[in-house]
Amino acid sequence: MSINKSITENQKEEPSADDLQLYHKVENSPVGTWKMYPATGVGVEENISQHWQNIIELRGRVKHSLATHCFIEALSIRLQIIDYWLRLFFSNRATPGQKREREFGRLLKQVFDLGLSKELYEDLLEFNKHRINAIHGYVVGTTSYMIIKKVAIESDELLKTSVIFVIRNSGIVVTTRDQLVANPGALTLHVEWFCKEVREGKYY
Question: Residue 75 contacts by C-beta under 8 Å, 6 or more apart in sequence?
Fold first, then answer.
């Protein structure tokens, strides 16, 4: 499994074998098969190498936290994954110059205004409430570990739904290699393949 990283704007070297393979796939697929997701302002540009390394590790980290009953950690990582995809949604749907909110609840309202479905918005609001209670309210009794466990396990489906919604409802359809030049952190994805990978739990 892999995510294709779009060619950066200042990349000068000759295309690699992987680049050429991607060009061939993009240019020989039906329109709409491939999309590019610019990542302007998402927050990964300054730490791009570590970002890609952490992306590779995510699925294993979540599986380990669930297997060892570290449910607060599982919630936290899944929230970060959802937050990352909502940032991409914002980057791809916002008007030029619109500033992204950093706090998750405020970002959630922004992306709702930009087209996030009402049902998903409400589910994410509820999830965030449980996440806040888990991190800040466990000791004072706002929640219980059984509730945290239940929410952590059920959040798997919410994460998948969130990622797939962003993939299907944002991004730029690409058909030529000239369209694959973007800022660091941008993704180029085969839409149906990636959605299938996410649904089957092969990515997160």
Answer: 130, 131, 134, 135, 148, 151, 152, 155
Pairwise CA distance, residues 89 & 84, whole Å:
9
The Cα 10–Cα 12 span in angstroms is: 6
Domain spans of the chain, in order of start? 4-199
Task: Collapse the DSSP code of 8 into the 3-class scheme (helix H, G, I; strand E, B; otherwise coil) and give the result.
Answer: strand
pTM: 0.89
Backbone angles phi, psi at 47, to 5 degrees: -130, 45
* DSSP assignments along 62-119, one per residue: HHHHHHTT-HHHHHHHHHHHHHHHHHHHHHHHSPTTPPPPSSHHHHHHHHHHTT--HH
User: What are the tens digits of pLDDT across the range 35-86?
Assistant: 999 888 898 888 888 988 898 899 899 999 999 999 999 999 999 999 999 9
Nearest by Cα to 144 from 79, 72, 78? 72
Residues 199-202: contacts with CB under 8 Å, at least 24 apart: 199/160, 199/164, 201/156, 201/160, 202/1, 202/59
Q: CB within 8 A of 85, min separation 6: which ones?
A: 162, 163, 166
